[in-house]
């Protein structure tokens, strides 16, 4: 099948999902364009910072579009391109986009609070503490996996000791991006340019930084870059949103959207065929079984629990108008789904004799899209540097967000409920610098084993987090009289998928504990402990959520889904 047909069909399907299903949800849930959002009511110049619609979209998309939408579809292509395409589209439109939009919506309607605080309000305090602990542990897995990926991407030397110019150039551009973002943030805050001037200046700055980074690459080893990345995460976690993260994500969005556009145009020009089989069976020769492997392997692009943390922890605090939530929450997920389908097309075009080519998913994707870009007249070296930068940006823009989210989760975990007086210990633990240091310290310890040891747990924890968030959102919608039945199938399916996968992983880890290698035994033992802990925490939160749903079965929709819909507690509904 021609890849152009796949891309065309996907764009139409995603556009229809946004225009019809997404807008239907806004009508059912209720949007008030005249309401003051938390970003305006609670503006503090740090976390609550109102921003234009595209700036918030850029932050949301740049943060969620990490390694997942590239890595997952390429690995899962071993089952054939058809099941990957179907799960990306069905998952993206009916699972992931609803999950992201729902988390953003619920948070904005509740003063920009995180999902953990919403669980306390609508499910109970015990569920809140367990969920926040789960969320914080999850951020450590993300930091460990992605920091290792970025460090290796920035590595300026090959295994043989030769210079790796694309990696060094990507590192140089990334460092310029950080400095440029701060300058751009100051420019926006104090010069207050129009949207057009801001766009033109942003594009100009991107081209200057790209050219300077390619001309002056920075050569350093993987470990050096990991130290620099952790220092950057600390800065990003504590600095005001407007000064670093918002302008950086705004500038990064040009790179990422340009990469997707370039790949799509390249497909139109090249019209490569899909050299992969449409379907290779439910069970493969290597022992992989489609259920639940496909749905765990492909997270970002279909549904990812991490997205809810971005929606409810950062984006909800910067939305300036409720009508922007559909574009930011649902729209950013649709674009990420398209990125996943582009990755599928790239690996399909690069396949040989129906087999996925050798190499890492990032390597396959980067070389494939760079090849498409050369067809558009872009210099081969520039295309390679551009793609390496885009790949690192996919992970780096996730890292700065997750560092901030981890800090916020840590603070909320040890915070007190409204009206309670904090103890000196809790005051110390809820300090933003203490929360950031604790998050990065334990994230670094996990990173020492390399991302390959962390990735399996990351995938299962990520999808399990999505299931828990969907349960919490279903309770929120039910308790407040909104339409929530659309979440029942996604939350049940994802809970079954993730629990099945974790049970399988646990059994495999138990079988490997006979290893004679001390380091391997320690790694597998740690993974086993984390896997069991994740299942236990998730099980308790899920049971609490289902009990709350059951107790509200007789609640009438006394609150119409209209503009100006205000939050109402369960008690008020009776």
Keywords:
disordered C terminus, 72% helix, 0% strand, 574 residues, single chain, Hydantoin permease, mainly alpha
Report on this model:
The protein has 574 residues and is mainly α. The protein has 22 helices and no strands. The chain is globular and about 60 Å long.
Could you give the topology of this structure?
Layout: H1 3-29, H2 38-41, H3 53-64, H4 68-76, H5 81-108, H6 115-122, H7 125-154, H8 165-191, H9 195-215, H10 222-238, H11 245-270, H12 290-297, H13 305-313, H14 325-350, H15 361-375, H16 380-413, H17 424-429, H18 432-447, H19 451-479, H20 488-512, H21 518-551, H22 570-573
Helix pairs in contact: 1-5, 1-14, 3-11, 3-14, 4-12, 4-14, 5-13, 5-14, 5-19, 6-7, 6-19, 7-10, 7-16, 7-18, 7-19, 7-21, 8-9, 8-11, 8-16, 9-11, 10-16, 10-18, 11-14, 11-15, 11-16, 12-20, 13-19, 14-15, 15-16, 16-18, 19-20, 19-21, 20-21
Whole-number tally of structural domains: 1
**Low-confidence blocks of residues:** 554-574
Note the overall shape. globular
CATH topology (fold) name: Hydantoin permease
Task: Give a short overview.
With 574 residues, the protein is an all-alpha fold. It has 22 helices and no strands.
């Amino acid at each position: 099948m021609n890849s152009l047909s796949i891309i065309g069909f996907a764009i139409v399907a995603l556009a229809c999902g946004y225009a019809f299903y997404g807008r239907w949800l806004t009508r059912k849930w209720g949007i008030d364009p005249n309401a003051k959002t938390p970003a305006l009511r609670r503006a503090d110049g740090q976390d609550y910072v109102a921003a234009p619609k595209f700036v918030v979209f850029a932050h949301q998309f740049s943060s969620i579009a990490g390694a997942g939408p590239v890595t997952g579809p390429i690995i899962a292509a071993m089952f054939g391109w058809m099941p990957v395409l179907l799960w990306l589209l069905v998952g993206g439109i009916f699972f992931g986009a609803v999950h992201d939009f729902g988390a953003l919506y619920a948070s904005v309607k509740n003063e920009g609070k995180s999902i953990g605080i919403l669980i306390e309000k609508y499910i109970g305090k015990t569920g809140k503490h367990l969920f926040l602990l789960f969320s914080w542990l999850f951020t450590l897995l993300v930091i460990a996996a992605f920091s290792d990926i970025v460090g290796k991407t920035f590595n300026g030397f090959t295994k043989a000791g030769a210079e790796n110019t694309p990696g060094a150039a990507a590192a140089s551009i990334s460092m310029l991006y950080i400095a440029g973002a701060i300058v751009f943030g100051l420019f926006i805050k104090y010069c207050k340019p129009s949207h057009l001037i801001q766009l033109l200046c942003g594009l100009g700055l991107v081209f200057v930084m790209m050219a300077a980074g390619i001309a002056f690459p920075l050569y350093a080893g993987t470990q050096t870059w990991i130290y620099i990345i952790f220092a950057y995460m600390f800065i990003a976690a504590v600095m005001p949103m407007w000064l670093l993260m918002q302008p950086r994500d705004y500038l990064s969005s040009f790179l990422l959207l340009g990469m997707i556009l370039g790949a799509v145009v390249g497909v139109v020009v090249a019209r490569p065929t899909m050299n992969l089989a449409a379907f290779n069976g439910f069970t493969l020769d290597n022992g992989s079984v489609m259920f639940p492997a496909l749905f765990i392997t492909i997270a970002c692009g279909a549904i990812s629990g991490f997205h809810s943390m971005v929606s409810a922890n950062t984006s909800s605090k910067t939305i300036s108008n409720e009508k922007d939530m559909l574009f930011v929450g649902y729209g950013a997920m649709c674009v990420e789904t398209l990125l996943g389908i582009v990755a599928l097309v790239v690996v399909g075009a690069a396949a040989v004799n129906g087999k996925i080519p050798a190499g890492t998913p990032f390597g396959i994707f980067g070389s494939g899209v760079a090849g498409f870009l050369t067809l558009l007249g872009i210099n081969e070296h520039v295309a390679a540097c551009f793609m390496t930068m885009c790949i690192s940006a996919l992970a780096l823009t996730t890292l700065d967000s997750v560092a901030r989210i981890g800090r916020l989760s840590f603070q909320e975990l040890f915070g007190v409920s409204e009206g309670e007086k904090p103890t000196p210990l809790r005051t110390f633990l809820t300090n933003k610098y203490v929360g950031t240091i604790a998050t990065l310290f334990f994230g670094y310890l996990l990173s020492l084993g390399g991302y390959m040891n962390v990735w399996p747990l990351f995938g299962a924890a990520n999808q399990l987090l999505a299931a828990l968030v969907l349960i919490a959102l279903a309770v929120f919608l039910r308790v407040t009289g909104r339409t929530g039945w659309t979440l029942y199938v996604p939350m049940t399916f994802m809970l079954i998928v993730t629990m099945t996968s974790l049970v399988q992983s646990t059994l495999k880890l138990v079988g490997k504990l006979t290893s004679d290698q001390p380091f391997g035994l320690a790694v597998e033992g740690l993974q086993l402990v984390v896997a069991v802990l994740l299942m236990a925490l998730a099980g308790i939160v899920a049971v609490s959520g289902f009990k709350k749903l059951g107790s509200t079965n007789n609640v009438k929709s006394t609150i119409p889904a209209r503009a100006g819909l205000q939050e109402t507690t369960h008690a008020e509904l009776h």
